[in-house]
């Protein structure tokens, strides 16, 4: 580009990476910004200015642009515009005849795919005008949604309580709009539906009351968010909770020369009280032989009263 008074302007594209340089036992960090940064530097006569912005920006998140102007000899207007999908976003705009260094935060636009877009920087004055464009990647990371029920098995007529949470790339609850949430029976018939439910950055909690004559089998909770789908299954069946539970604690290995074997047998009701009764214990030592059908095992049987 030809400039007034025969001046030329040189633009330099710098890629700033995490880099550690070691020499003679010294450790010098040349640049540590955590991500690739696109830096636009212009030296034109006595005018010097620089614009820096991350080379990869995540969709919908807040990013940062910094601009510097040194030794201006006239009033200059600096603008930085991000163009994407036939749209324009003015990120930075300032007019000054003095040097400055200023940073501004901006929110990356929403989109459903990763794509390279343009950052257009313009510096304009009475005797100077320059426009330059650089490539910026706007990266789309799909959000992760999870569905959890309060229990895995339900009786007909009970209420199914479930919650939906969506996490961003930093594992934080994200504000999400769930297009469709469906409850499907074992024949994939829709028996419940929620449309355009929003979590407002927290956990979305919903419930559904099953009919007492509902069909037994596996049911599915299907959640649609944009183009992503996540499913959660649970069972509906008539079952009877066990009245008590029996636990056995025994050593994993016992020496053949040991005369006594210690083990604990415990029976408790579901509310925690012990169960009195008789316990029949059978301990067998199976022979290690290819002819196991012809050699009987050594077994010990005993019955004891449980207090």
From TrEMBL:
Superkingdom: Eukaryota
Molecular function per GO: serine-type endopeptidase inhibitor activity
Macroglobulin domain span: 145-236, 238-289
Keywords noted in UniProt: Glycoprotein, Protease inhibitor, Serine protease inhibitor, Signal
Matches recorded under InterPro entries: A2M/Complement_sys, MG2, MG3
Family: Belongs to the protease inhibitor I39 (alpha-2-macroglobulin) family.
Name of the featured protein: Ovostatin Ovomacroglobulin
